[in-house]
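Ligand: S-adenosylmethionine. Inputs:
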Amino acid sequence: YVLVIEGLAKLCVPDPNKYKRIDNIYEPSWAPVFYNPLMVENRDIAVLTVRAMNSIVSKNRIVVLDPLAATGVRGIRIALEARNSKDIEVFMGDISKEAIDLMKFNAKLNNLSDNVHVYWMDANEYMHWMVRNGYSLDYIDIDPYGSPIDFISSALLTISKGGIIAITSTDLAVLEGKYREKLYRRYDVIGKRINISKDVAIRALLYYIARTASRFDRYVEPILAYVYRHYARVYVRVYKGASKAMQMLNECIGTIFYCERCGYSELNRDIHESKTISCPICGNQLTEVKPLWICSLGNKDFLDRLSEELIKMPWIQHTTESLIKYFAMVSDINVITIRLVDIARFLHKEIPQRDKLIKCLSEKGFKSVKSIYYSDGILTNANILEVIDCFNSI
Ligand code: SAM
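Predicted complex:
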């Protein structure tokens, strides 16, 4: 084991030099207790979210559950860094006894033995046990290996009204459509891998969460959803109500239509009719991926709160800061990425510099932002004809 610092926490973690693959890269899942330093931005944003909850939750105490806690880094950081105007009570757990021993040690190392509660329990059992024991759970963080689907129903059933569940999914290849049968079996989604598969991945995961919520007469509001490095991460607020759940399904579940010839795409509410639809730009048959979440991926007010909290936390990574700025910029454009490589191939032209294209679009009065998912991707409220026009004029 070695000592590391992350955020304001001191942590004892497995020595990364001991668990390296043949290509000399650290493989955290080989270590006796999981700790991945590359997930720091994921945890930074979790801490910021609980801090931002201080101004959302009306109770005086926020109850946080980190039921797949491994070294305890996430829960410990929340206990140390998220306290603002309210008390924060943190519960952590894991199925592995070795993890439990290490997280207790780490809690002690940070003088938190009396402030965080550690239980050796299965995550699903833990969530229901908390409710059975009278706790109202305000924030649940689901951060498993691979797919989170095993834990989503319990999280939706046990979170308090208006509470937040944060979910990480590292089975990005499945969500992106690389394994079509698995995408269907696991997430109900039919389709294949397309050039904007990261957009699909977030919306497939949100579809699954929303559809599961609706089965329990609950509905969700995504406040932040993104793909970064090897994972998708979503934050949703959860509410109760059968008619609102139905409204959510009617308004927010639909299809991505995408043209593999010219890059045209659209988000559409139509999921039921399977008809052949031609691309309005080039006439090619459109590829469909469905059902997907087609409503907004973020809540502007919430993202503004994250930015306000960020200023008070100078220890947060610069990479996290850039992510938050990016989320705030794209939060009011609910569109799918346009890949310049698609349009360039269609027009038989070189791919222009994104800056030049964005300047051209902004001169026409459109808002455009460089995608962080694709080096040739842009998000814009302009339609593809305007983008093609700029392509031809620069
Ligand atoms: N959240 C941690 C962090 O930020 O560093 C990493 C968690 S790691 C990816 C997943 C953890 O979930 C492992 O420690 C594993 O032992 C634990 N786990 C797997 N299945 C579980 C279950 N059913 N209940 C509770 N913990 C489980």
